[in-house]
Design a protein that fits this description.
alpha+beta, OB fold (Dihydrolipoamide Acetyltransferase, E2P), 5-stranded mixed β-barrel, 6 helices, 23% strand
């Protein structure tokens, strides 16, 4: 067999193999069945409805709630603010027996809340700086019962605040003061405290009427 004949045979054989392979490939494609998967519908939970805030940050008169002054702490801390709330608790120093020497109690203070009688400690805001001691408050109440009037002009000239005589649990107040982490009277809290600088009684407590008699 000549060289040319051998080359021709090889080409012929390659042609047969290629045809065979092509035929197998076509048969394999013909036997493949494509199955369409069902459409996937995403099943997402409904968008949750966020509850409204328990109290407004500020009331119509621009005074803050306890909730609000803390919510806006970046803006309110170390500033003078007005707050509206109820006296939830009032500190009363324990009585000291006459025959004992007791430690000096802390300065008078009370806790302001957005609702009367609030018992949750995390929702109370401490207010202090309205009197040096309880005796000063007791004396001011006695003077008020006797009809002794406070000379507000003289106090203003001295830069001194009148000692309040109507601070009792349940009273609703609008309080002015400095909101800070540490008050001028030494009280401190990471949630802020209010350094008292005056107040208006919006709703007196029943105890206030009894104390005035």
């Amino acid at each position: 067999m000549t060289r040319v004949s051998r080359i021709a045979c090889v080409i012929a054989l390659l042609g047969v193999v290629s045809s065979s392979l092509l035929g197998c490939d076509q048969m394999a494609k013909a036997n493949v069945q494509v199955e369409r998967l069902p459409d996937v519908k995403p099943s997402l939970p409904p968008v949750p409805t966020l509850p409204p805030p328990p109290y407004p940050t500020q009331y119509a008169d621009q005074s803050y709630s306890v909730y609000g002054v803390r919510r806006a702490m970046r803006k309110t801390i170390d500033t003078d603010v007005e707050m509206t709330g109820y006296i939830a608790k009032l500190y009363v120093p324990p009585e000291c027996p006459k025959d004992q020497k007791c430690p000096l109690p802390p300065a008078p203070h009370f806790w302001l809340a957005d609702t009367s009688g609030e018992a949750d400690e995390t929702k109370l805001l401490l207010v202090a700086g309205y009197a040096e001691n309880q005796k000063a408050i007791d004396d001011a109440i006695k003077d008020a019962k006797k009809g002794k009037k406070v000379d507000q002009a003289e106090l203003d000239e001295m830069g001194v605040l009148a000692i309040p005589t109507d601070l009792f649990p349940g009273a609703k107040l609008k309080v002015k003061g400095r909101f800070a982490f540490i008050s001028g009277s030494g009280f401190q809290s990471s949630e802020g405290v209010l350094g008292y600088n005056g107040h208006t009684t919006l709703e007196p407590a029943p105890q206030a009427a009894a104390a005035a008699e």
